[in-house]
Amino acid sequence: MRGMFTAGVLDVLMEHSLTTDGTIGVSAGAVFGCNFKSHQIGRVIRYNTEYCNDKRYASFRNLLRTGNLYSEDFCYHEVPEKLDPFDEEAFRASPMDFFVVCTDLRTGDPIYHKCRSGDAEDVRWMEASASMPLAAKAVRIGHYSLLDGGVADSIPVRFFESLGYKRNLIILTQPKGFVKKKNPMLPAIRARYLRYPAFVAAVADRHERYNETLSYIAMQEASGKDYVIRPPIPLEIGAMERDPAQLRRVYETGRAVAENQIDKIEAFLNDVKLSPEA
């Protein structure tokens, strides 16, 4: 639910008619970031505050009954198809490229998928990107069994650079100076995914790759190649938050940070568009 910060930032960008040529989302960044391409201002905070207390949305009962903390049927069908519709037509019409990152359960490698239409298959890829180990079943798409993209590539800036995006606007949900530590749930993950040693290995050294990527981003930021938006202090919110006020607090933090930096963000994006490399 630190993704509420990202939602606040993206809503401000949309309100100021700022966009990007391409966007990539990981985990919550995938299921919330897709609204940036469909240009649905306010949708993320709206449906999360509306349903955060609904046991159909997220509950340990769901986990025990289905293997998913966040209900697959309610979150990825009932809400986007009926209760707070995802604008598939607008998503498809937008010229922005939108990618999500998932982790291959068998190999532990990142899988990058370009969501072209926002249809049911694309939503499955978004779901897979946000399917946390221990809290969700692996999502099967084609020959893949997929889980949370953050395991393999939490901040995929180098992948985007490989596609030709030379300068990037990066939204982080941890404050400056954050250092990721080893996953305290590693013993449980090792036991649960015993048949998938490569995936367990990816979980085990995730913190090292994450921290190395932060160091790389800091260099890119210092050189002016990347612009980084991050919260000023730890957001202190859990993966399953039932208090709408706490969700809104984090969302409003994202809005405040973006509004405070909006002139600099706009200048950076305009420079990108004027750059012959972009």
Automatic annotation (TrEMBL):
Gene3D superfamilies: Cytosolic phospholipase A2 catalytic domain
Protein transport as UniProt keyword: no
Motif window: DGA/G: 148-150
UniProt motif (GXSXG) ranges: 25-29
Annotated active site: 27, 148
Pfam family, one: DUF6363
Molecular functions per Gene Ontology: hydrolase activity
Domain PNPLA: from-to ranges: 1-161
Signal peptide positions (record): none
GO BP terms: lipid catabolic process
SUPFAM superfamilies linked: FabD/lysophospholipase-like
The protein's name: Predicted esterase of the alpha-beta hydrolase superfamily
Source species: Faecalibacterium prausnitzii L2-6
